[in-house]
Amino acid sequence: MSQLLEVSGVSVSFDGFKAINNLSFSIGPAEMRAIIGPNGAGKTTFMDIVTGKTKPDEGSVLWGDMSKNLIGMNEAKIARIGIGRKFQRPTVFEDQSVFENLLMAVKNDRSPWSVLFFKPKFKDLAKVEALASEIGLSDQLERKSGELSHGQKQWLEIGMLLAQDPQLLLVDEPAAGMTLGEREHTTDILKEAAKTRAVVVVEHDMDFVRRLECKVTVLHEGSVLAEGSLDHVTQNKDVIDVYLGR
Ligand code: ADP
């Protein structure tokens, strides 16, 4: 299968400490992938590298038809070529409604006044409605985002990222702070999103990872320790040792 993202031999050190150490793995075009690993394994640094926030010392991150190397591209350009990142804390506009937040994202214009002053185009409204339905907030469109539950804010932010039609969505610990019901809905949203794009989820919660029903990559000390189904990796002796701190 051709790949969407291919990380090869990537290393980065901070003050002589190798946070990412000869990391290599790849993600397919409409693939869901979970990345797990103990604290300090390099999960955040990996996402920082892919999104252009951190420049590695060595290696390449090839993208799309593999003719583009993301290393050296700035964050804005990487976002434009189709990589969206959801941080752990939602960053929606709390004073604006769900509708207004989604419309701003669809129009890719983050200034509320310019978005709301002009009458929205039919195609933008249709996209807002489709996104609201995808994230399960169709009945909340008029609500101020600040009044939403934690889970609903997370879904709204996922919807705002999907509005940009990313080919790869990186999601950092989506289950944190969510109720069981919210987690289940989040899994549904991410699975639906992964039908048409790659979705990479960094997550500690193993029940959540299990529900994603996807290939799992285990990072440890900045490298891939194991890869495969969740059952496969959790039976791996090296993974058990790392998680139990042996
Ligand atoms: P994870 O997300 O898996 O918990 P991180 O990618 O945050 O791991 O960190 C990997 C290692 O790199 C950790 O030991 C962390 O302390 C170190 N590290 C990450 N970013 C920096 C930085 N900017 N300066 C110094 N050390 C860092």
Automatic annotation (TrEMBL):
Domain of life: Bacteria
A cellular-component GO term for this protein: plasma membrane
Pfam families given in the database record: ABC_tran (PF00005)
SMART domains recorded: AAA
InterPro entries tied to this protein: AAA+_ATPase, ABC_AA/LPS_Transport, ABC_transporter-like_ATP-bd, ABC_transptr_urea_ATP-bd_UrtD, P-loop_NTPase
Keyword Metal-binding attached: no
Keyword terms: ATP-binding, Nucleotide-binding, Transport
Annotated ABC transporter domain residues: 5-246
SUPFAM superfamilies in the cross-refs: P-loop containing nucleoside triphosphate hydrolases (SSF52540)
GO molecular function: ATP binding; ATP hydrolysis activity
Name this protein carries in UniProt: Urea ABC transporter ATP-binding protein UrtD
Species name: Celeribacter baekdonensis B30
